[in-house]
Amino acid sequence: MCYWLTPGGNSGNSRYEYWGTGYAAEQQVDTQSRYGTTPLKSFVGNSCASSQNAFFTIGQSVQCFGLVSNGDSGAPLVPRVINSLAPAIGTNASQNYYPMVNPSQGRYPTFCPPNLDCSSNSSVPTCAAGTEQNCAVTTIDRFTTSFNWADTGFAALWLRPQWYLLSNSAITDEQNGGVTFVSGGGYGTSDEIPGYWALA
């Protein structure tokens, strides 16, 4: 990924920093349902080249296998380098080392009014059906990307599941999809929020 706007929470050494108000409070580690609720304030004039995906907004994608042989063994041409200092996934040490991401969730950018506890649904409900007034549009402006090779079923820009505005941008020389706007994929209000739109 060039840019991966994950549905993540406060990670690493910030995991237990409990800011009482503001956007930093939205993604506290003990409120996983609010991961990915912070809006993207500004994304202007960025670029990407020669990456599998250019801009992604969901927690889990397909694995990139890198350089592999064409033979039956599938052995990599360039072997991976094992980092013996990285903690094993699933251990307590790994919780401080790897980012906290909800792989089954998309992004739900939610405005945080001043001086409110934005880690709490009772104070500031997450952007959803019935609380559309809290929803923020993700705007991508003057973005250029070339030579991406998104996996089948994906695209260089994968913008899901809520409001997106892509303006003044260029996507060239793609080996698969260029830009995809999709809702959550189903027919319920949890998948397609009332008033949903996406515009290029």
Could you explain how this protein is built, in words?
It is a single chain. The protein has 200 residues and is an all-beta fold. 3% of the residues lie in helices and 16% in strands. It is built from one helix and ten strands, in the order βββαβββββββ. The chain has one helix at residues 92-97; strands spanning 3-4, 47-49, 55-56, 138-141, 144-146, 155-159, 164-167, 170-172, 177-181, 198-199. The strands form three sheets. It has a four-stranded parallel sheet, with no helix packed on it. It has a three-stranded parallel sheet with strand order 2-5-8, with no helix packed on it. The protein is globular, with a radius of gyration of 19 Å. The model has no long low-confidence stretch (mean pLDDT 86).
Q: How would you summarize the topology of this molecule?
A:
Layout lengths: L2 E2 L42 E3 L5 E2 L35 H6 L40 E4 L2 E3 L8 E5 L4 E4 L2 E3 L4 E5 L16 E2 L1
Parallel strand pairs: 1-3, 2-5, 3-6, 4-7, 5-8, 6-9, 7-10
Give structural attributes.
three-stranded parallel beta sheet; 16% strand; 10 strands; four-stranded parallel beta sheet; 200 residues; mainly beta
**Which shape, going by the Cα principal axes?**
globular
- The helical percent reads under 10%
Beta fraction? 15-25%
What would the average pLDDT be, to the nearest integer? 86
Quaternary state reads single chain
How many helices? Answer: 1
Brief account:
With 200 residues, the protein is an all-beta fold. It is built from one helix and ten strands.
